[in-house]
Amino acid sequence: MPIIEPLPLPEDPTTVDLGAKVEAAWAELRTALAGALRELELGTQLTLTLDPTAGGTGDATYTVEFVMFDENLLHAEAVGNAALPPGHRLDRHAIADLVALGWSPPGVVDGTTDNFGLQMPTSDAGRLAAIAIRTLREVYGTPHPAFLTYSATALEGEVELPPLGAARRVPGTGVASAPAAHDPSAPLPDRVRAVVSELLARPVDELPVDADGDIAIRSGSAMVFVRITDDPPLVEVSSPVLTEVRATQRLYERLSALTKTLPVGRLYLEDDTVWAAVAVFGTDFQPTHLSTAIRVMTGLADVLDDRLQGDFGGKVFFGEALPERREPGTHGERTGMYL
């Protein structure tokens, strides 16, 4: 089974800086993008896009694209207001930020009409990548590289590129997509299985399905389940990150703090099990929402189970049970009402 590239997430607010995790993901993308730009072939166009579905930008599409004009010149464009719908256009502050980053207004750089332009020699690919990343992140508001898609094309068709960090190749490029995932007329279970099939690169009839009909995906020492409910129509992506754990005030506090740091989803205690869960609407189902949720959960569960077990004992899905680590002064603590 291929490894799903997970969205880097916080492990524990007392030991890991969420900001550092996010910065690491952006740094990984910047390095990968710089490498791709240095190797871009003549006439190849590479486009990075803030996925409007995952990013919640509606009908607005924010892009940065690159073209190798000649062997030593990279041409880049950042989308301008002419291509953006009302309500999503860049205000004067955003335009000023683009100019401060080094972009020229639309029409100034040869080859641009409606977009902001920038040209640099191939030797400055690292600097160009840094400008593009700051544009996508700071001006266009991309929360994390996992919300970006990319494609590379030339006159002869698609161009293969190494993975660009947590950014996702546009569905239908590089790896064949399952048509049912994007067919609004298909039943919800078929669309969900098609999305998981794409992520795991496995035929639909070979997906790991348990006795309850849930799709089970192993992620390190954790297990992630994809479950469909009818009323209301939802797709829940969840993981029992820790079982056989004792309910304490300290545990509730930790789960509450962790939930606040998550871009999506929540952590909660039910009976003696800590669950991590992300829900995706089944009505007006969007395949990108589910694929992002699965990538979030596979990264989250495998990080959190070990961290929480180290502090609170219990049992991870694929591992042995450990005793609770008692902190000084915790004897006799009460559960409280945190959730």
UniProtKB/TrEMBL annotation:
<protein>
    <submittedName>
        <fullName>YbjN domain-containing protein</fullName>
    </submittedName>
</protein>
<feature type="domain" description="TY-Chap N-terminal">
    <location>
        <begin position="25"/>
        <end position="148"/>
    </location>
</feature>
<feature type="domain" description="TY-Chap central">
    <location>
        <begin position="189"/>
        <end position="319"/>
    </location>
</feature>
<dbReference type="InterPro" id="IPR054343">
    <property type="entry name" value="TY-Chap_M"/>
</dbReference>
<dbReference type="Pfam" id="PF22551">
    <property type="entry name" value="TY-Chap1"/>
</dbReference>
<dbReference type="Pfam" id="PF22552">
    <property type="entry name" value="TY-Chap3"/>
</dbReference>
<dbReference type="InterPro" id="IPR054344">
    <property type="entry name" value="TY-Chap_N"/>
</dbReference>
